[in-house]
Amino acid sequence: MELKKFLLPLILTATFYNDFFHGQLMANGKIFNQNNLTAASSRFPLGTKLIVKNGKKSVKVTVTDKCNCELDLSKKAFKQLASLEKGIIKVKIEKVF
Prior knowledge:
1 helix; six-stranded mixed β-barrel; 38% strand
């Protein structure tokens, strides 16, 4: 999938990884760590870097895994956008590189 085909900004639903996945193997062959700024996505290729915004808050993440949802953030990344109690948030993808 070519990155230039995405029309930005893109509004997606974001969640965060369940604790079960901490220490598990990701699609990129590395071990998942909730304390890294990473994401899983069904829309973006592995290795894609994204600027994810929720209101005035933003975080830069790297897509390291695949999932069945639009965007699944590590806990560290999600906490930079909203409290974990929210669980699901709407985010804006402003930059893809």
